[in-house]
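Endoglucanase (Nitratireductor indicus C115), 604 aa
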Amino acid sequence: MKTVLLAALSSVALFTSGAALADTLLRVNQLGYLPDGPKRASLITDRPTPVLWQLVDAKGREIARGQTKPLGMDASVGRKVHLIDFSEVRESGEKLSLVAERVTSPPFAIKPKLYVNLPRDAFGYFYPMRSGIEIRADIAGEAYARPAGHVSAPKSGALNQGDKAVPCQEEGSSLKIYGDPWSCDYTLDVTGGWYDAGDQGKYVVNGALSVAQLMSTFERTLYAKSASAKPFADGALALPEHGNGVPDALDEARWELEFLLSMQVPEGPPLAGMAHHKVHDDEWTGIPTLPHEDPKRRLLHRPSTAATLNLAAAAAQGARLFKPYDAAFAERLLKAAQQAWRAAAEHPGLIAPEGDSDGGGAYHDTDLTDELYWAAAELFITTGNADYRAAIEASPHWRSSIFKPAGYEWANVETRAALSLALVPNSLSRSDAEWLKRDIVTAADEYLKLQKRAPFGHVYDPPEGRYAWGSNHLILQNAIIIARAHDLTGSPKYRDAVLETMDYIFGRNGPGISYVTGYGTDYAKNQHSRWFAYAADPALPGPPKGTLAGGPNVWLSDEIVREKRKGCAPQFCYIDDIESWSTNETAINWNAALAELSGFLAEQ
């Protein structure tokens, strides 16, 4: 909507044009807006007709004014919503606010380079999440310093001997889970990797997707014309491997890749080459529990085909990226990926059961066609082998529409295959390569249509409007696809769509909260975590700056949100409470989506 400068109207008219509604809400991107980018806000009000708005500076002086555009009822908030569009304002400023219906928005900025620090902060989440290494105060900050987690017994007589020699589940307990008395006669040293979320579990399925997204953050800088590798260069991020000549993004990825390799069944046992699905405690721990104080027993869970294919995909991608920096490690990765591919072919139906959730998440998935597609794609890109190309072409996901308005996550990874195949040079035919690129651009165009209909400017349309677990990262995954369309075409409409999507993440949403810790005025700070647990124990820190909260989840799976948000409209099915694990948890895959998009945003 064109900004209308109404100099003839007095400011008094703006504030007395009618009685203000007590439940009127004004939502903005609390971080701010780029001078040459879209600038929109959302006004939740029952007014049926346009209302006047002002943009003012810190001293209350008017910069611009105009009229809202009524958009009607929005089911995601259960209210009528108006659009405020002040995109014509190009002047920079700090501590600006919008005013409408006698409601003033949180302050925000209009300035360039708004997102320049986001890569460091989004990646900075991962170092304190590392297992098996001391977290140093000089890197993570004094509040986050702690001894290495799961490397030895925290005290005499404790059951937890760390992750250095972890046994498999016993036959008695596994019989109840799998219907089969599975176990193994070996132990594995699975030290390292990232803790998955608010608990101390480590999961191959989710870890592989997360590390792939971190690697893709760097891989994009090799092939996208406008991309900059500077935010991910050696010395750019907060981690201990500085000065080794390896980009920091790959150093952080290696910490997880080494763990994934350690989860592979060694030569000799019946399931050699397969990947154990996960390792975690035999019981849930409480809040707070620091990793080095975890008293529970650690167990390896039965290998799964999903974990094995995910390992194959991530390791194959890592093999090509690490080759210029560490050829021996690259060779290890490729060998492991190929072994995993063969093992998965021999054991195509090992499904992780839904009920295996004592002490950790199940990560249950019965459709593995997407994992097979992703693994084949990454192996094909890295090796050029015709067998992998044949597997790609045999997939139901090949040359079919795979981009969904509800986004994708660990159980639906076919999108990763398409993004890699369209970005990284490979030996697909020219017509196949062009089709993939057109498909991404077509998907982005559909997302832009969706965004145009969305009163809060975000790109997300789940079935029946039901916001899902981790909805915030699903929105970011869709934004990554739009960003890739910009990389492929250079069209500014895709850049603007990504920027407007971030409005929702940083406060232009129903609750009016920035879902990234440390960003904005009113941001999430009590995410569910056993060691970023200031809300439970003031001696501990809160989540580090750059931590993404899970976001609205209509399933209300925990007691806190059920009690306090009963009957909520989808966007309001969220609470910034440490006990709300279903709406407010942290997770590596959620922050990986933020990290992957951060590079694109920092360039704008």
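The radius of gyration is 24 Å. Residues 95 and 161 are 52 Å apart (CA to CA). ok done for today
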